[in-house]
Write a sequence for this structure.
């Protein structure tokens, strides 16, 4: 993008809501936001069941491992609020006038996206492993679809967060176009004259300075001083 700073134009420019929503980065954030809701919503609502139908205590459907359910819920909530935060950052990114602040925002996005990609990878492996070890029963079968949904969307979340990390890396590599900080009065031609310097009409004057001719009428003997004759 010509005249861009870390993927955004000049600070203070108008934001078109339609173009903003059509950006791949915005679409990816909304997508992973929905995925996070599906994961922790499925676990909270349907992945705590009575295994035999007689126990009063609800057990985690993933091999009765409470850590598996807790981890899936925690990652989903972190991703949920992280998506909201960076969605707001993207919305106001063009209003950030400081290059250093823009760089920090892009690096924070890159680091957070990479970190969430790792967390979702661990969540997918953990949930899938515990689900394979789960003994099917009447109570488990009731929440089986929710468990599979949590595992599936955990895998999809890895892909989306990796894509967000790649987008952030691309924005970081774009860097800053220093023409954003050049004033408009400077000419683009390096051989052009500085605009603030008065150059006149451009027509060279034909009048030249001439020193007054030396004449004998000038008083070359001040104060009556006489030159001795030789």
């Amino acid at each position: 993008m010509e005249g861009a700073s870390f993927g955004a134009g000049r600070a203070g420019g108008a934001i078109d809501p339609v173009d903003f929503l059509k950006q791949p980065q915005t679409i990816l954030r909304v997508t992973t936001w929905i995925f996070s809701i599906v994961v922790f919503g499925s676990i909270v609502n349907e992945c705590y069941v009575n295994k035999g139908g007689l126990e009063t205590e609800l057990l985690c459907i993933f091999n009765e491992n409470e850590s598996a359910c807790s981890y899936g819920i925690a990652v989903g909530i972190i991703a949920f609020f992280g998506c909201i935060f960076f969605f707001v950052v993207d919305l106001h990114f063009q209003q950030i006038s400081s290059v250093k602040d823009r760089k920090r925002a892009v690096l924070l996005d890159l680091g957070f996206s990479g970190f969430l990609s790792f967390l979702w990878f661990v969540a997918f492996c953990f949930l899938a492993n515990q689900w394979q070890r789960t003994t099917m029963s009447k109570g488990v079968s009731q929440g089986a679809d929710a468990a599979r949904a949590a595992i599936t969307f955990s895998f999809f979340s890895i892909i989306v967060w990796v894509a967000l990390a790649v987008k952030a890396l691309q924005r970081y590599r774009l860097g800053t176009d220093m023409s954003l900080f050049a004033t408009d009065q400077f000419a683009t031609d390096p051989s052009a004259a500085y605009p603030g310097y008065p150059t006149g009409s451009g027509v060279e004057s034909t009048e030249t300075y001439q020193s007054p001719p030396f004449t004998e009428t000038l008083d070359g003997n001040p104060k009556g001083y006489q030159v001795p004759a030789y």
